[in-house]
Amino acid sequence: MDVSDLLYGAYERKLVAQLPPERLPRHVAVMLDGNRRWAREKGAAMADGHRAGADNIIPFLEWSEEVGIEIVTLWMLSTDNLKRAPEELAPLLQIIADVVREVAEMRRWRVNPVGALDLLPESTRAELRAAAEATADVEGMVVNVAVSYGGRQEIADAVRALLQEAAAQGRTLQDVIDTIDTETIADHLYTRGQPDPDLVIRTSGEQRIGGFLLWQSTHSEFYFCEAYWPDFRRVDFLRALRAFADRERRFGS
User: Fold this and answer.
1) Residue 33 falls in the annotated catalytic set
2) What sign results for the dihedral spanned by CA atoms 94, 123, 32, 6?
């Protein structure tokens, strides 16, 4: 081990020591951005960038578990991404299926797919369902796998599900209008029953939410990191947690 490794390790330990457990987030959501730009800068194929990004998922989940995060949401594929050329989308879907299967086989965390899964190929849906079923009894950290996810799509799906439920109950449209509120809609989101994310991280230097957890992130803290997702390190995560812990959350007040 050279001197730079020793210094890096010492810096990581210092960051960990600076994290007050009572001020850490329960739910961390991450926009895994920059895989394609990472590949372009290295002169590699797009699929190589997506694989490099997938290789960083389990380490990130381990870092999250180490500090006591209860829920992690990973935005792996948006509804807009489904419009990509077939020669990029097909291998990307396979890479996602492979890493989700790998996470499930560890039986360390509970996999929860979130998104408009009906827009995905049946083979991908089957992989996601299998991962969820295989980890349903796991009591560890919850890992929301956001695949074919779009914030507007989620809200539209929530309203549709609410109306379908009301129709099945024989309720009138006027009754639904009179009783609908924010809590009712929240109860039909993909993440229903979960606390909203405390911290949302976006890699690659982009500073926009791009439709990620539009409803749930109203009071979230955001952290933007310059590193592309494949290069996102534990030290970057610890810096994000330190920044979160140092903020005074106001929840809109």
Assistant:
1) yes
2) negative
